[in-house]
Amino acid sequence: MNQRPLYLTEQIRLNDGSVPSSALTKHKKMAFSPFVFYRGTAPLFYSDIANSTIDIPDVFKQLPNVYVMGDCHTSNFGFFTEEGSHSNSVIFAPNDFDDACVGHSIWDVVRYCTALYLCKAHCDIVQPQHQKAVVDHEQVERAVSAFINTYADTCRNIESDTHLLTSALDTFSAPQKLHKIWSKAIQRSNGGALFEEKSAIAKATVIKDGQLAFRDDPAKFSPLTPEQYHQLQDAFAPYMDNEIVDITQRLNAGTGSVSLERYYFLVGPKGNAGHLRLSDYHIVEVKQQKVAAPVRASLLTHPVNKLNPAHLTARCQKHMQRRPDLLLDEVEWNNSHWLVRSRHHAKVGIDPEDIATGKRNIAHEGLVFYATQCAQALALAHCRTDRRTFSYESTASKAYRAHSEQVKNIAQQYAQQVVSDYAWFCSSLKSEAL
């Protein structure tokens, strides 16, 4: 008897508090494609490592531990301003640390490579409505190989020149599609041509009664009761870097974390907004944190992973980023752990359609190029774990070069498993609706 459906049902119940249900916003999102399903089931990935469905070679378990993203996939890299909202320096780097912890680098590498295969599966589904050609399987194969090899090469380069750890990917030229996305982020940064119109803070706020405030947008924001407002203000004011001007609840953000509570605080000087600059303000996100997926699976015993979920996320982010958010903290409140961080004025994410569809990506190997950029960014983040002994770089470079085909095969096989699991998930939702 096939035990996989029972196993999947239990894993989803443990993670989401419910068996597959179309009543859950998260599950509705996950039903869109195998890629989105994969994004919403990071704990399943680590459970499959624990039970050897994903069989990690011992050579990678013997490498020095590093800070890992935990939920490493193609859409968890992107463009953003360093130091949160306190800088106009736009870089390309990992942008999600909710499942970050101390672990094996191979977790991030396999999870990312699996996502490359699923990008194509996602785009094959959306292609009819976008009417754009999708990259072929051969380019996906080249992208996976390029990711692994570039990761290994970057580790070797850092071993040769440790000053590279202070570098970042901050320039992209045409004709690559990333150039257009990078330019968009530059324009939205503080001082950019579109900051006043397209930045995150511009799109989220409006002037009400002479004061900057959050927009009325029922799809994204839920107004607070006076009691809720004052409770949040009292609890989190000590962690802000200016006055709290407004607070709202953020709705329907993210995929894996869509069910977790989060609030936006508008922070800056109070007064007549007509005489103040938009750049004087920023948005601070207060987000409920849950146990990181690798930690929940008990794959690695390490003292750092005993930190509470919000503290662990903040610590990992501070180590993995070149210039971490200046406002980055953790708070225990209302029987939960909360991460406090400034929102980037310019944060532009990458969807599968951006890198795996269209004539430009096909002609100029867009998916391959994107994979190499992510590999460099990930290697930099991993190698920042230890800035004294640099014991990771040499051994990692050799291991990934020597076993690149094995890693590629593991990712390809697991991508096929995800497609099968996704089909079961969609079938379960249909059965539940009857």
Automatic annotation (TrEMBL):
Short name of any one Pfam family annotated for the protein: DUF2252
Protein name as annotated: DUF2252 domain-containing protein
PANTHER family: DUF2252 DOMAIN-CONTAINING PROTEIN
The species this protein was found in: Alteromonas sediminis
Lineage top rank: taxon: Bacteria
InterPro entries for the chain: DUF2252, Kinase-like_dom_sf
